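B., you asked whether I could sanity-check this one before it goes into the benchmark set. Here's the sequence:
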Amino acid sequence: MKHPPFANAEFYHIYNRGVDRRQIFSDQYDLQRFLQSMDEFNVFEPIGSIYELSFLDQGILSKRKKKRLVNFIAYCLNPNHIHFVIQQVREGGVSELMKRLFGGYTWHFNKKHNRSGSLFQGTFKAKHIDSNEYLLHLSAYVNLNHRAHQLGGLTAKLCKSSWDEFIDRSADGFCNKNIILEQFRSSREYRHFAESSLKDIVERKNRDKEFGEILLE
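And here's what the prediction gave me:
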């Protein structure tokens, strides 16, 4: 799939899955490392040994002010695939961040599991979010993506999304969620919208094969 041209201030749906639909997170450490990489790699300045040292404080996202490449609006990490809603804020930011993120995590995963080769199914996929309505409904789908796939048991424990950031304003995180939440009177109202929207999206996905493929079923 050819990427759309990435422009500053525009929003994009980014998604990718494990090669051959394989699992890309084997435990909570993998999940946390990927999540922290989303934050640590999202900087304009070159990355060096400081990035590796940051993992000594596992589970703690950096609080330093940074010049960002993109704004994360929403995300969901599933055992074998990921979704992001992002906004580019620096020229070339989307491509640079994805190169760092997927390349760096593949290096970590392969070293940990004594394997070689690709971990993800080719390059990442991207779609331009060209309307506010699309942005709102996609935020719901991404925030609740693990529910859309009806994941349970141990598999559900290897999922992480920005949902808590949206429904609990005091929750720790790094998403720029105000562009979504400021359109609702409260987090509770957004929760109702998101859960209703997810139900409609899943029903449409089940009816429409092409729509399902777009949502990375």
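One thing to flag: The chain has a mean pLDDT of 85. Otherwise nothing jumped out at me.
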